[in-house]
Amino acid sequence: MSRRNRLICYTVVGILAIALVAGLMLKSYVHIEEAEAIPLVRSTVVKNIGPEQSYSYSGVVKGRHENHLAFQVGGKVIGRYVDLGSAVKPGEIIMQLDPQDIQKEVDSLEAQVSAAESQYSLAKENLARYEQLYANKAVSQADYDRIKNAADTSEALFRQAQAQYEGSSNKLNYCRLYSDNAGVVASVNAEIGQIVGAGQTVVTLVQDGEKEIEINIPENRLEEICNARQIKVTFWALPDVVLNGQLREVAPMADSTTRTYKIRVSLLDAPPQLKLGMTASVMVVNQRDKAAVFLPLAAIYQTGDTPSVWVVNDGVANLRSVKVGAFGDNQVQVIEGLKEGDIVVTAGVHKLKEGQKVRLGDTPY
Asked: In the beta sheet, which residues pair with residue 45?
């Protein structure tokens, strides 16, 4: 074969090779475009939840009765006779204020009582003399009335001074803070040298006896805990202890900061090793009428007044109408329209079309 013929053959072979490679690349590009045209969606498989529904809340062990003790007068603390955790008896002194200023007030009022008593005694003697003179018609009615009025005024002033003195004496007694009940000191909010006001809590005393759990719940759980079929309480420090609880108290209004409601749960048959301040977990169990299906709110596709979801069958998305129930915790309850095992799209529902092919992601809800 001549050199020219060999060159022509090589040229033809090269052109065929280039055409073959270009065809393969074009086919691959078409496959990539087709794959990219099928969107990847996040989905979840529908599962029926049983007729029982439970929620858990963290809480703290509290005393059934807590006394927030405070002085009835203000002053400087000069004595603190209890510590955190101290056991106290009824009538035991807890704190004392400096009585110096009040003592001076008492002394001053005592002197006023003595002066008022002297004035009253003199007025009574004058009244007795004028009564005799008036009976003998030695003085006029006006003079007698004047002396009698002075005596009555002196008596009133004497009683006023006595009342002020007794009130000041009570203040002197209020400088000592006593325990009304037996219990344990749960908190101490004042130290020696601190100035406290009247009514300011200085000691919190938990009375001996029943213990309970304090929890805080959101407003959408109020009805559920009020209608709870069962309340179980466990403790982080006592893993083997499970107690039955009973709802005792529901706060009438939400906390202004957390917007949650304070709940008190009484403990039945609390063991002696249960201590105040321990961490507890309260599980509230409710009974449903039937099994429920819950989906994330993002799965709902609203068309007009009819809520719907995208259900995937054999890689194809189809819109299906559903009936929804309760909302809460970024979830919605589906009452009708779905069955167990259905695959529902949970994200990007507004970008899909009826009969569109989709690819299922590996991240279920």
From this structure: 343
